[in-house]
C-alpha cells in the first residue's frame, strides 16, 4: 500500500505546524481552527466519494493521516468522522453535509457508553437493533442526551442516550453486513493508531539511548539497554505487520474476506500485547525523565494504552483469536494463518 510521498509530507507539515503553535499536552476537545484547516485541504473527508463532497482517497491515505496525527500528538476525530460516521451514511444512501460527526451503536435502552468525541460533534450517526434488524439515523446533538466523559489521555469518551421512538420515523434500514464492516473498521482504526504510537515511542527511545552518555559511553552500547530497545522494536514491528496484513486483506476483498475477522482479531491482539512490552521497555530505558509531563514520551505511551482497550479490550480480542483458531480445527488452522 503506497501513498503519494507529497501527500504524506503535506499531512506531516500541517500537523507539525499545529503542534508547534499548540504545544499543550492536554486534548480536551476538537480544535475548530485545526478542523477548518483540515477541511480546506480536503483531509476531513479524505475517503469520501468525490461526487459527495469527499476527496476520493482510500484507506491507505487515511492510515497515513491517522499515523501522522499520532506522530505529532494531535488529537482529532478524523477516523470517527470520515472512516466510520460519514462512510456509514454514504453506504446507506444518506446525504452527508459538512457537520462534524461521530458514530455509535445504541443498546436496547437507547444508550451507548464511551462514544468517541460525541460531546464535540455537531451530529452523531446512531445505529440500533430492533428484532435483529438494524436502523440508522443521522442525529443532531440537540436531539440526544450526551454525558461528557474522557479516556485516560483526555479525549472525549461520552455517554449518548436517545429516544428510539423519536428517532425511528426518520431512520433508514442498515444491512447487517454493513454493521459487521463498522465493527471491523472501528477495530482497525485503533490498531493503526496504537501502532503509530508504539513506533513513535520506539523512535524516541532509539534517539535517546544513542545520545545519552553514562559512564563514558552511550546508553545504546550497554547490553541491557540494547535488549530493552530490541524487544520494544520487535513488538512494535509485529503489531504493525499484523495490522497491515489485516488492512491489506480488507481492501483486497472490500472488507468481506472470509478470514478477515480472524486477521482483525490478530492485529488487535498483537497491538494490545505489544503496547505492554513497548511502554514498559521504553520507560525503563528513559528512566525518570520519561515519566515527566514535559517530556513527549507519555504522549505516545499513554495513548497506546488508552486506545488498545477501545472497540474491544485486549482480552476480548485474545478470545476472538482463540475461538476462531479452535473453530478452524486441526486441518483448517494452517490455512487460516497462512493464506
UniProtKB/TrEMBL annotation:
<keyword id="KW-0274">FAD</keyword>
<protein>
    <submittedName>
        <fullName>Acyl-CoA dehydrogenase</fullName>
    </submittedName>
</protein>
<keyword id="KW-0560">Oxidoreductase</keyword>
<feature type="domain" description="Acyl-CoA dehydrogenase/oxidase C-terminal">
    <location>
        <begin position="191"/>
        <end position="310"/>
    </location>
</feature>
<dbReference type="Pfam" id="PF00441">
    <property type="entry name" value="Acyl-CoA_dh_1"/>
</dbReference>
<keyword id="KW-0285">Flavoprotein</keyword>
<dbReference type="InterPro" id="IPR037069">
    <property type="entry name" value="AcylCoA_DH/ox_N_sf"/>
</dbReference>
<dbReference type="InterPro" id="IPR009075">
    <property type="entry name" value="AcylCo_DH/oxidase_C"/>
</dbReference>
<dbReference type="InterPro" id="IPR036250">
    <property type="entry name" value="AcylCo_DH-like_C"/>
</dbReference>
<dbReference type="GO" id="GO:0050660">
    <property type="term" value="F:flavin adenine dinucleotide binding"/>
</dbReference>
<dbReference type="GO" id="GO:0003995">
    <property type="term" value="F:acyl-CoA dehydrogenase activity"/>
</dbReference>
